[in-house]
Design a protein that fits this description.
Largest sheet of chain A: 4 strands, parallel
Helix content of chain A: 25-40%
Strand content of chain B: 15-25%
CATH topology of chain A: Aconitase, domain 4
Radius of gyration of chain A: 16 Å
CATH superfamily of chain A: Aconitase, domain 4
Strand content of chain A: 15-25%
Number of domains of chain A: 1
CATH class of the largest domain in chain B: Alpha Beta
Number of helices of chain B: 15
Number of helices of chain A: 8
CATH architecture of chain A: Alpha-Beta Barrel
Strand order of the largest sheet of chain B: 4-3-2-5-6
Shape of chain B: globular
Number of domains of chain B: 2
Structural class of chain B: alpha/beta
Shape of chain A: globular
Number of strands of chain B: 18
CATH topology of the largest domain in chain B: Aconitase, domain 3
Oligomer: heterodimer
Number of strands of chain A: 7
Strand order of the largest sheet of chain A: 1-2-3-4
CATH superfamily of the largest domain in chain B: Aconitase, domain 3
């Protein structure tokens, strides 16, 4: 299932401030889009995608936005562009954020994403298009987030993550 | 090499000359989080460390929902308090984190990391202050360092003199309309030109605060005589550093330079639910937008200059009886000054509600939550759906002058007729 959103989806929509008073990922997952898309939490399934337009995740720095969406089991969020702090938070927690043109994709289209190749195949229509995952995003995602990497490698290995190697 | 202020500050904190577009590991001068974002950093922190890098350079401020309005909020605050005590970090409870950072902690040339999106605010002092999430805060709290992409700079050259009734907030809304809600993404917005040079630090803080609404990584103003005067007034005995170090070089490489003529700007209002849906207050006045609440406060416009303006407009007036008017000074210092100048007495006698300093109603958790279908005019920075309460409530954003005028009429009102 592809959950389709427009431009400028903000973090007050993803995890509204008034519900956002817990550190428990499962409780956070249950408030994802609680007002903007009340059926989202009930119906979202592991492996689903969110498809959106420009500036996804704008607004506050609240990391609960990426934690909540990760807790929902999304495979990835595909958007034309992402807000800066949201993108960084996504990298840090290991939520795959992909820059792609999502036009023409229907909610029920079956998508196959290959982040290593940077390709998005629409199995329903046969359309194959570019899906940009910069090397740092890919590395953070493969590592399962920055903390699991640092807790294994040590804090002095921070520079490896940005070395481009 | 000619450098922007951003590049200079990053170079100072990387131990080598760096330029826009490079990925770097930089040491930071200060890291900051508040009662909401700090709570989410405790788990991440415990995965990588058990001691903070330097308890004197980690700031934890309770401002988002303080004193706690619910058991959930109180429980998170109790966890943070326990952590802070263990680590020897005092918890500051004297107002909005960004205001406190500007008043007491940030110096020109500093690199500051804050777990809050409006962290760019203290860039008005010639510093680079960058908002991040709780995991980055946790890493910086453990190591004193963080990874960054050195941002390119968009320079905004503000020219002309503001008309009476038009303020820094109107300029910020005009820039938002022109650049759009993602027009500054990943960039430093550097505000300069004769208009900015003539502005008080209070007004500059409004501009850099609103840089966050354009997606910017930072908002900066080069340090000058006014910066020095502000710092000396706020921090008696402050030794002013050589401020010429905290300017962009004349011919530094900016990604873009935008000329902004401010002389003809009218008072402006951002309409819900986006920052760039900007219209003049006079146009909205024609539509007769009735209000249920006016909120005056926040890191954007909760300073003493803002409250002085409100007091001036309200002299000899009455507030509209159907309206709730909530005033939240940005800090204890602002509160005490407003008290000694008689503003708070005036506000209370007129029937406004004055709350304790902090973020107040801005984020919809306490001190002025909106009911379904209500309409609020706020001096804060965000008008997203549901931000201040019910998702069917509407939030308009404007200057303290427009808010003060509208509190008299009960409708969104151009403030200029009250300033004649």
């Amino acid at each position: 299932m592809n959950w389709i959103f427009g431009d400028h989806v903000n973090t007050d929509q993803i995890t509204p401030g008034r519900y956002n008073i817990t550190t428990d990922p499962n409780r956070l997952g249950a408030i994802a889009f609680i007002e903007a898309r009340p059926e989202f939490h009930e119906k979202v399934r592991p492996g689903d995608f969110i498809l959106a337009g420009e500036n996804f995740g704008c607004g506050s720095s609240r990391e609960t936005a990426v934690i909540a969406l990760k807790a929902c089991g999304l495979q990835a969020i595909l958007a034309r562009s992402f807000a800066r702090i949201f993108y960084r938070n996504g990298m840090n927690v290991g939520l795959l954020l992909v820059i792609a043109d999502i036009s023409g994709i229907e909610p029920t289209d079956e998508l196959f994403l290959n982040p290593q190749k940077g390709e998005l195949l629409n199995r329903t229509t046969g359309d194959c298009r570019q899906a940009t995952v910069p090397p740092m995003m890919l590395r953070f995602w493969e590592e399962g987030g920055i903390l699991s990497y640092l807790s294994r490698q040590g804090l002095d290995q921070l520079s490896f993550l940005i070395s481009g190697g | 090499m000619r450098q922007t202020l951003s590049e200079k500050i990053f170079s100072r904190h990387c131990g080598r000359e760096v330029c826009a577009g490079e990925y770097v590991i930089a040491s930071v001068d200060l890291v900051m989080a508040h009662d909401t974002t700090c709570a989410w950093s405790l788990g991440p922190f415990s995965q990588i460390s058990d001691r903070v890098w330097d308890p004197d350079r980690v700031l934890i401020l309770f401002d988002h929902a303080f004193p706690a309005p619910s058991v959930d909020a109180a429980s998170l605050q109790a966890r943070i308090r326990h952590f802070a005590k263990e680590q020897g970090i005092p918890i500051l409870r004297e107002g909005v984190c960004h205001q406190i950072l500007a008043e007491r902690f940030v110096n020109p040339g500093d690199l500051v990391l804050g777990a809050d999106s409006h962290t760019p605010t203290s860039g008005a002092l010639g510093a680079l202050a960058i908002g991040v999430g709780s995991t980055d805060f946790a890493i910086a709290m453990a190591t004193g360092r963080c990874w960054f992409l050195v941002p390119s700079t968009i320079r905004l050259e503000l020219e002309g003199e503001l008309s009476p009734g038009v303020y820094a907030k109107d300029v910020a809304l005009h820039i938002a309309e022109r650049m759009g809600a993602s027009g500054g993404t990943y960039r430093t917005l550097e505000y300069g030109g004769e208009t900015v040079r003539a502005m008080s630090v209070s007004d500059r803080l409004t501009l850099t605060n609103m840089a966050a609404e354009l997606g910017a990584k930072a908002g900066v103003v080069g340090a000058d005589r006014r910066t020095a005067e502000y710092l000396q007034a706020m921090r008696p005995g402050y030794a002013v550093p050589d401020l010429s170090l905290f300017q962009s070089d004349e011919e530094a490489q900016c990604e873009q330079t935008l000329q902004v003529q401010v002389g003809d700007l009218p008072p402006l209002v951002a309409q819900p639910p986006d920052i760039d849906r900007v219209i003049s207050a006079r146009e909205l006045e024609k539509d007769g937008v009735s209000l249920d609440q006016v909120f005056i406060g926040s890191c954007t416009n909760g300073r003493i200059e803002d409250l002085a303006l409100v007091a001036r407009i309200w002299q000899g007036q009455r507030l509209h009886p159907d309206l709730r008017v909530v005033i939240t000074p940005a800090s204890n210092q602002v509160y005490l000054e407003a008290l000694s100048k008689g503003y708070l007495e005036l506000f209370l006698n007129m029937g406004a509600t004055v709350t304790n300093p902090g973020c107040g109603a801005c984020l919809g958790r306490h001190l002025g939550v909106l009911a379904a279908d209500e309409v609020c005019l706020s001096t804060s920075n965000r008008n997203f759906t549901g931000r201040m309460g019910s998702p069917s409530a509407s939030i308009f954003l404007a200057s303290p002058a427009t808010a003060a005028a509208s509190a008299i009429t009960g409708k969104i009102t151009d403030p200029r007729r009250f300033l004649a």
